Amino acid sequence: MSVLILGTAGAGYLYYEHLNGNIRSGGRAGGESGVKKAAPNALGDTPLNILLIGSDSREDEKNIALGGGRNDKDRKPLADVQMLLHVSADRENASIVSIPRDTVVPIPKCKDKNGETFAATTNRPINESLQRGGPGCTLTTWESITGVYIDHWLMVDFAGVVAMADEVGGVPVCVKTGVYDKSTARVKGGSGLKLREGTTDVQGEQALQWLRTRHAFGSDQNRAKAQHMYLNGMMKKLQSQNAWTDTGRLTGLAETATNALQVSDELKSVKKLFDLAMQLKNVKIDRLTTATVPTAPYPANRDAWLEMVPSSADKMWTMLRDDVALDKNGGKAAKPKATVSAKPKTPAEAPGSLAVTVVNGTDGDGQAATEGRARTITEVLRGKGFTRAESFKEGSGRKDTLLSYPKADGDQGKANALSVAKALGLPDSAVHASAEAQGLTLVIGSDWREGNTFKRPTTVAGDLPDGADDKSSCMDVYSVYRWDGKS
User: Fold this and answer.
1) Do 398 and 147 meet the contact criterion of CB atoms below 8 Å apart?
2) Which of 18-27, 68-77, 372-381 has the lowest mean pLDDT?
């Protein structure tokens, strides 16, 4: 969320270049997810998705001092905090969705910045994705899980969190009783967080302790809730400081933020960060939803790892893909799915002249593919006159069904693709132009496992699964870690 505070900060060209020189960046993606950017709505706008990553890197002395473990200095960092910031296409609402760090997920094949390749795995926690190809691999993992195209990533380490908290003068957080997250006879470790009952502005090392506390809040799920409270508190603090309009305030914030953050290559300039901030600054706090995907103990390691509850996760990912608001404060029903811009005036060619490749990608949700799915839909197409349709058993798994056509084919390609979509009941938003496509290609996602006509699951604004919405005004403290404020 630090990107929200970057503004003009223009004390001359040299200072502008100085800020640019602070910014560290890396590749957007670490592998291939097969997920395409959402088609624009009628106004040409698309949702904005940014992956926020908190790294536990111990690579420099500041991080070692804050995080401990000098023996981990040479260990590749883990992504201990992962949140997807989704901003709606109309920029009226936003959501921050977390996956707890110890959740076991499929991690796709990735390559890091040095060219080292890491094989895909299905039985490791999501925080290891950062070790298997850097932040780009974490982004590719999220895309593969959710089917949501992610535009950028932002990453911060221990020292960066401390610097940002100090720059804003502390972030308000709240506990219902005093808390001391200490090592106990049964559970070793702990963040060291020590706060009295009520609201405290945490800064410096104390801010980092808040974000890392798990035992005192009872679970990884509740740790995510505490992290979301922190982000809401920072937003309110910045608004109270007029951080978007006070030039002097912006200068200090921009200096700190550009030093604290690492970003994907597309954001490697103050101007690009500023342009991004302008898209985000008008989202009101009451339209910002925080949520954590519901989880259950992972059967093979119930004491340490988690797995997502499939029905709950699928519902949340569908809402994000369809750009349906996670809150109910907009006074609107579910937004219509973004559609391909105005239909082309060029008429589609005859169905019998169109070669359509149908691929079974129903394993996109991590479950086994539906046997014979591509063959079934191919026969449906042939029955509707698309006699040159051919099926392929294997292909890239997808959460959402996608019909792509060669970008070079322009309006004619779009018209042809839309005619195929109409025959199957697919929404226009399932149609995408692709520079890599060799012809009309239909990948059947895990959202269409049965039936000859596509029926998109209905979603309603604010209808999150039980246990997902985790906005809280004050955190509960697990009894063992309650503190009387004296000792």
Assistant:
1) yes
2) 68-77
pLDDT at 386 over 60: yes
Q: What are the structural domain ranges in the chain?
A: 2-321, 351-444
C-alpha span between 346 and 441 (Å, rounded) = 20
Question: Position of tokens 């910031």?
Answer: 85
Amino acid at 39: A
- Name the range with the highest mean pLDDT among 83-97, 262-276, 341-355: 83-97
3-class DSSP state of 151: coil
Q: Give me the pLDDT at residue 197, please.
A: 96
What is the average per-residue pLDDT within 31-46? 80
Tokens read off for 414? 């779009």
Rounded CA separation 278/108 (Å): 33
342: exposed, middle or buried (Cβ count in 10 Å: 0-12, 13-18, 19+): exposed
Torsion angle of alpha carbons 431, 436, 442, 444, nearest 10°?
A: -100
Whose structure tokens read 């298997």? 132
Q: Which fold has domain 2-321?
A: Aminopeptidase (3.40.630)
What does the DSSP assignment read for 372-428?
A: THHHHHHHHHHHTT-TT-EEES-----SS-EEEEEGGGHHHHHHHHHHHHHHHT--G
SS3 helix, strand, coil % of the chain, rounded to 5?
A: 35, 20, 45
CB contact set of 108 (below 8 Å; sequence gap of 6+): 31, 32, 33, 120, 137, 140, 141, 144
Question: How far apart are the C-alpha atoms of 476 and 63, rounded to whole Å?
Answer: 29
pTM: 0.78
Range 351-444 classified under CATH 3.40.50.1820: no
CA angle 23, 28, 33 (to 5 degrees): 165
Give the Cα separation of 431 and 417 in Å (integer).
Answer: 7
* CB-based contact 96:289 (threshold 8 Å): yes
* Distances, alpha carbon 42 to alpha carbons 347, 432, 457, in Å: 20, 15, 22
Q: Select from 384, 481, 463 the least CA-distant residue to 425.
A: 384
Token pair 């839309």 in the structure block, residue: 418
Q: Judge if 2-321 and 351-444 fold alike in CATH terms.
A: no
